[in-house]
Design brief:
Blueprint lengths: L2 H27 L4 H21 L2 E8 L6 H16 L1 E8 L4 H11 L5 E3 L6 H6 L9 H5 L1 H6 L2 H6 L1 E2 L2 E2 L2 E2 L6 E8 H7 L9 H14 L17 H5 L2 E6 L2 E5 L7 E2 L5 H15 L19 E5 L4 H9 L3 E11 L1 H4 L3 E4 L6 H13 L1 H9 L6 E3 L4 E4 L19 E2 L6 H9 L3 E2 L13 H19 L5 H14 L2 H15 L3
Parallel strand pairs: 1-2, 1-3, 12-17, 15-16
Antiparallel strand pairs: 3-13, 4-5, 6-13, 7-11, 7-12, 8-9, 9-10, 14-15
Helix pairs in contact: 15-16, 18-19
Length: 501
């Protein structure tokens, strides 16, 4: 390169260097353009949006019962506890026992905003589930709430299925039916009744006669027409009812899931004959068929219960009782669906709602706060796992909220009350039709007609007021003419399809 070319090269480099420095200098001093302002603001706005997202969302929870007097204080404590844990707070709303079913059904179908609700008492909840109003939890629970998924047994999840979708979170408590004979403790001790070896009606009869002989003016077995003996079909006759009116079900102990008419089973007829015999011998109250409410005192009665239920029955009855389980524990779709929570399909906060349900069932502090209120204000501890209720400021139906197994026991119940119940549930067996729900859509007319017929006869038959050998054939004839066998055939077809037959 000659000297002229070198000089030109150095000159160009110098000009470029000056130009570069001038450009840098002008950028630093020039005012920020609108475009640059937007670029600067975007990260700030994104940061603010991120902060907003981190703020707790608020869930709306509808549940059943009278609103507690001091709900606001408890609700505040709940939110203080859960906000950081699940990124959500909750507003608990109550609807009374009488209005809950219809009110919630209207809320759900109207599109009114809510996130979770007690499902068991919602009118036609199975139809609402089939129409997609509740979140399908089948895939989301294991992912979002694995502790909840693992805690609740497989049988309960199966019992909450409809069209192969889990539509609610069941409350793991006395979810399998256990039926007990409950006795007046003092009477049993006085008459030397061997109550622990009484299971069947045949075994019950000598004890009833002994009570009658002790006081001929009294009726040993006091029952009412709407129910008869509590658990008569499910526990005395061991039938899982798929429909209660007209009666239709599957035998718990059957080797195959065959839908039967209880009215056509000889063992059911034998038990009805026994009731008829007792009625005529004065062992059953003469007004049983028309009685709508039993008196507080009964020498013996049948009830669904659980270990240590004697303490609860003693309080509700007003006299000391002792009991013996004569059937169960048995899982059925209906026993499991006695308490569950649904998540709205329209909820914007499904995951937070599910995490909240998980926390209720797995966090002892939250469970007891929701069930009993604030320690020192609504209850006081009397032991590591026992409490005494102080007042009526916060009274709620705990069965509607979640599991019993992380709850305190209320005096005078023993400290291991709920541990014993959980162990009891682990022994439960299942109905062959577990998880199946019969849809009457195709036989609605037949069901309505048969229900009217059964209503005429059942109170008298269930209380022994009439001779079953005379009345049942007459009733069956009327039922069959109204389409009873069509209902049974439709149920069998649906059950076969459910079981993949």
């Amino acid at each position: 390169m000659n000297k002229k070319m070198k000089a030109l090269a150095f000159l160009l480099v110098g000009i470029m260097s000056v130009g570069t420095m001038t450009a840098c200098s002008s950028i630093e001093k020039a005012p920020v353009s609108e475009e640059n302002q937007e670029t600067t603001q975007k990260p700030q706005e994104e940061e603010k949006e991120k902060e907003k997202k981190q703020e707790p969302v608020n869930l709306v929870w509808w549940t059943i019962g009278s609103e507690p007097k001091e709900l606001a204080a408890v609700n505040e404590k709940i939110n203080e506890y859960i906000a950081d844990k699940i990124g959500a707070t909750v507003t608990i709303k109550y609807a009374s026992w009488g209005e809950y079913g219809e009110k919630l059904s209207k809320i759900i179908q109207s599109g009114e905003s809510y996130d979770l609700a007690f499902g068991a008492s919602i009118n036609n909840y199975q139809d609402l589930a089939a129409k997609g109003y509740f979140t399908d939890l089948t895939q989301i629970i294991p992912k979002v709430a694995p502790a909840l998924w693992d805690f609740i047994p497989e049988e309960l999840w199966k019992g909450m299925t409809l069209n192969n979708q889990i539509f609610g979170v069941p409350a793991y408590k006395d979810s399998a039916q256990s039926q007990y004979w409950v006795w007046d403790k003092e009477l049993v001790e006085k008459l030397g009744i061997d109550y622990e070896n009484i299971n069947t009606l045949e075994e019950l009869e000598p004890a009833l006669k002994k009570i009658k002989e002790n006081d001929p003016s009294k009726y040993p077995l006091i029952i009412q027409g709407l129910e008869g003996i509590n658990g008569f079909m499910s526990s005395v006759n061991k039938i899982d009812l798929l429909l209660s009116n007209p009666l239709m079900g599957v035998e718990y102990e059957a080797t195959e899931a065959k839908v039967i008419s209880p009215w056509e089973q000889e063992y059911v007829m034998d038990n009805l004959r026994t009731l008829y015999k007792w009625f005529n011998e004065g062992l059953i109250n003469p007004d049983a068929a028309t009685l709508t409410e039993t008196p507080k005192y009964r020498p013996v009665f049948s009830a669904q219960g659980y270990p240590y239920a004697d303490a609860d029955w003693t309080i509700s009855s007003g006299y000391p009782v002792i009991s013996h389980m004569y059937y169960g524990p048995a899982y059925s779709t209906s026993s499991i669906q006695g308490s569950f929570i649904v998540v709205s399909e329209a909820s914007k906060y499904k995951e937070e709602a599910i995490k909240f349900i998980e926390l209720i069932n797995t966090d002892a502090y939250l469970r007891n706060l929701i069930a009993f209120g604030i320690e020192g204000q609504h209850y006081e501890k009397t032991g590591d796992n026992t409490i005494k209720v102080l007042n009526d400021g916060y009274q709620v139906p705990a069965y509607s909220q979640g599991t019993f197994f992380n709850m305190y026991a209320t005096d005078p119940a023993p400290a291991d009350k709920w541990t014993a119940l959980q162990q009891h549930m682990e022994k439960a067996f299942s109905s062959p039709a577990l998880g199946f729900t019969f849809s009457t859509d195709k036989v609605n007319n037949q069901v309505a007609a048969c229900a009217n017929i059964q209503d005429k006869y059942q109170p008298s038959l269930f209380t022994g007021s009439v001779n079953p050998d005379e009345v049942v054939p007459k009733m069956l004839d009327e039922l069959n003419k109204a389409g009873y066998q069509d209902i049974i055939a439709e149920a069998q077809a649906q059950l076969d399809a459910y079981l993949g037959k």
